[in-house]
Amino acid sequence: xxxxxxxxxxxxxxxxxxxxxxxxxxxxxxxxxxxxxxxxxxxxxxxxxxxxxxxxxxxxxxxxxxxxxxxxxxxxxxxxxxxxxxxxxx
Length: 90
What we know:
The chain is mainly alpha-helical. Helix content is 57%, strand content 4%. The termini are far apart.
């Protein structure tokens, strides 16, 4: 929901809809369940939403969390990398 609102605010509704369609065609969407929320409550990250991302990354066996805010994920079981760091490695 936040992604759509941000896209709409900066790019307009048509481009926001187009970007959502592109994301749906090109990415897998992870399912959030109670187990992820419970695990996130027990993860020592300052922000609960970041903990949800980290626990989802564990459940989905992700190699990295791609974010511009890598410092928020210190203590995450899945390492965080900026988009630039990720592209340099791969």
